[in-house]
Amino acid sequence: xTKTITINIDEKIDEEFRDMVKTKYGKGKGSLGRAFEExxxxxxxxxxxGDPDEHLLMLAEKGFRLGKLTTNKRGEWHRA
Length: 80
Fold this sequence. Notes:
The protein is built from four helices and no strands. The chain has 80 residues and is mainly α. It has a domain at 11-63. The longest helix has 19 residues, at 31-49.
């Protein structure tokens, strides 16, 4: 079952989206709807599961405990 949605968006976003749709799906009938549906699915999936990029940024900001360095000599780090 399909549903019709009417939205108002910024003109610049509309132009960019339509250009991207033409590149991926062509100019055929239904291409804009397919691309919009794909964008909504992506949005829903990332909001529902949590954005993985946000999680990775949080880990990077928190830092990692890598233990204590036992040497300051670079050559000893690369021993075979």
